[in-house]
Amino acid sequence: MSENSFLYSLTSLFLVLSFSCIYGEDPYRFFTWNITYGDIWPLGVKQQGILINGQFPGPQIEAVTNENLIINVFNSLDEPFLISWNGIQQRRNSWQDGVYGTNCPIPPGQNFTYVLQVKDQIGSYFYFPSLALHKAAGGFGGFKIQSRSIIPIPFPTPAGEFTVLAGDWYSKNHTDLRAILDGGSDLPSPDGLLINGRGLNGNTFTVEQGKTYRLRISNVGLTTAINFRIQGHKMLLVEVEGTHTLQNTYESIDVHLGQSYSVLVTADQPPQDYYIVVSTRFTSQILTTTSILHYSNSAASVSGPPPGGPTIQIDWSLEQARSLRRNLTANGPRPNPQGSYHYGLINVTHTIRLQSTAPIINGKQRYAVNSVSFIPADTPLKLADYFKISGVFSLGSIPDYPTGSGAYLQTSVMAADFRGYAEVVFENPEDVVQSWHVDGHNFFVVGMDGGQWTPANRLTYNLRDTISRCTVQVYPKSWTAVYMPLDNVGMWNIRSENWARQYLGQQLYLRVYSPVNSWRDEYPIPSNALKCGRAIGLNPPSL
Question: HSE of 328 in the Cβ direction (CA atoms, 13 Å)?
């Protein structure tokens, strides 16, 4: 056994013993990941990729509701590194969220062990590197959470499952793209699209005629919404980011940045090969890539052009988004029906309006929320909050509504009370579609429409059966409103899923606070927490 492997084993054993008192008797799964650079050719051009255990994309995480995941990440890059877990709620445990506001980066040549519990969650998600535009080089992978065997699912068990990680891609290395942003410019248009890390016809998904398969589709790209479709086949939508849906049938589905969907596809066509198609949405130049759906008894390969899809039509996409509904009688991760939570009958305690803008600050392109363009502090905000380090951030450093003032740079943190119930309105006065994500929470998408949001729009909200998810789109010159239970104490990132916008300031942190110092509300700082910035040398108070 190598020295590193021995240290991994010791670390994992120590953390299991340390955290078993917190997480109880739910099963554990163990992962050891080595993060390296490696040559990749996804669009036929050699570039430097970020690999996990030599893989691009990285290995898939498979878990069951409530399981504990011990993920030991060794950073063999030449720069600091973090992994975040898109859609994993980290209940009471923002210490494991893997963004710079909560975690110190893993230094080169060192490791950090994440201890996650997928508490009360099911569904389709992905993980990704959260620092320094590393996402443009890879380091992402699928993350699926199956229901417990005692919980019925609202459809027959599929014959098989496929994870589809799709999105735009640049042929430039991530360091070159980062230099473009640091220089004050936006990213150019992407060079192509990938499906599971490969370009045109680079993947084959083999099915047996007459059987039904589940496809878990995520948009892991940087800047572009996509449309997903399969030649000659319809898709039955069954799950969106952990919520079982009404089972509507679609010929194609828009998947915005950071979003995940599960569909059932039945191999009910003549036995041959068919195109799986991904194309860009709302772009001046439409990019397209394909994979192959291969019947095991296929009599013919694909031929002719792949089927076309929607391109710039916003109304089409808006109507599809409004068609997403929660299955009120189906179980979620728990045995009670999803409809037993009456989100529309809960009193709103706090309204937050978040308006995006694209200002020029100090001669450089920036992006902002409510006139504030986020800049990272010298110390992770969660550590600064825990150790009461002054001068790192200020609560209320971003207003909770648009002010119309000139844009400025600030480490923006908004205050919120545990067990509150927030109405959050994402406002987009720009002419590009946007996508927003909230860490640590799911929210109910109660409304979306064009124009300026006003309180009168509340009369149009869906207060009965809308979808619950963690990432939502906002169409150009439009708004999207969500209801969000503030049921998870911690420091949580709210961000644009357009990674250039996120990098250049279109994000903030929401501090959900409980005055009760109890493990019931929040887990203590992990014993292996990395220290950096002004937290170096600080230790938790003795009990």
Answer: 9
Q: How much is the pLDDT for 336?
A: 93
Which one, of 336, 476, 341, 453, lies nearest residue 401 by Cα? 453
**How distant, in Å, are the alpha carbons of 69, 70, 93, 114, 436 from that of 19?**
11, 10, 12, 11, 32
Whole-angstrom Cα distance, residue 141 to residue 267?
A: 26
**Letter for the amino acid at 413?**
V
- Cα dihedral 498→499→505→508 (10° resolution): 80
Give Cβ neighbours of residue 368 (< 8 Å, ≥ 6 apart): 356, 357, 358, 359, 407, 505, 506
Distance of alpha carbon 124 from the chain centroid:
10
Question: What was the pLDDT predicted at 261?
Answer: 98
Tell me which residue of 69, 243, 63, 205 sits closest to 143, measured CA to CA.
63
User: What is the pLDDT at residue 541?
Assistant: 76
Neighbours of 384 (CB within 10 A): 23
DSSP 523: P
Contacts of 182 (CB under 8 A, 6+ apart): none
β-pairing, 394-395 with 412-417?
Answer: parallel
Q: Is pTM beyond 0.90 here?
A: yes
- Give the closest residue to 259 by CA, choosing from 318, 228, 218: 218
Task: Tell me the β-bridge partners of 355.
Answer: 427
Q: How many CB atoms lie within 10 A of CB 462?
A: 18
CA distances from 118 to 63, 123, 357, 424 (A): 8, 10, 35, 25
Q: How many residues are recorded in the chain?
A: 543
Neighbours of 157 (CB within 10 A): 9
- b (16+ CB within 10 A) / e for 204-232: ebebeeeebbbbbbbbbbbbbbbbbbbbe
The 10s digit of each residue's pLDDT in 114-154 is: 999 999 999 999 999 999 999 999 999 999 999 999 999 99
Q: Average pLDDT in the 13-25 region? A: 49
Helices (H) and strands (E) in the chain, counts: 5, 36
User: Exposed (0-12), middle (13-18) or buried (19+): which is 133, by Cβ within 10 Å?
Assistant: buried
Angle of CA points 125, 470, 94, to nearest 5°: 85
Identify which of 56, 255, 59 has the alpha carbon closest to the alpha carbon of residue 144.
Answer: 59
Closest by CA to 252, choosing from 277, 272, 273, 280, is 277
Report which of 446, 491, 487 is spatially closest to residue 469, judged by C-alpha positions. 446
Please give the share of the chain, as a percent, with pLDDT higher than 70.
95
Helix, strand, coil percentages, rounded to 5, for the chain: 15, 40, 45
Calculate the CA 101 to chain-centre distance.
16
What is the arithmetic mean of pLDDT over 75-85?
98
Cis omega (within 30 of 0) for bond into 305: no
* Residue 213 three-state SS: strand
Q: What is the pLDDT of residues 233-257, one digit of tens each?
A: 999 999 999 999 999 999 999 999 9
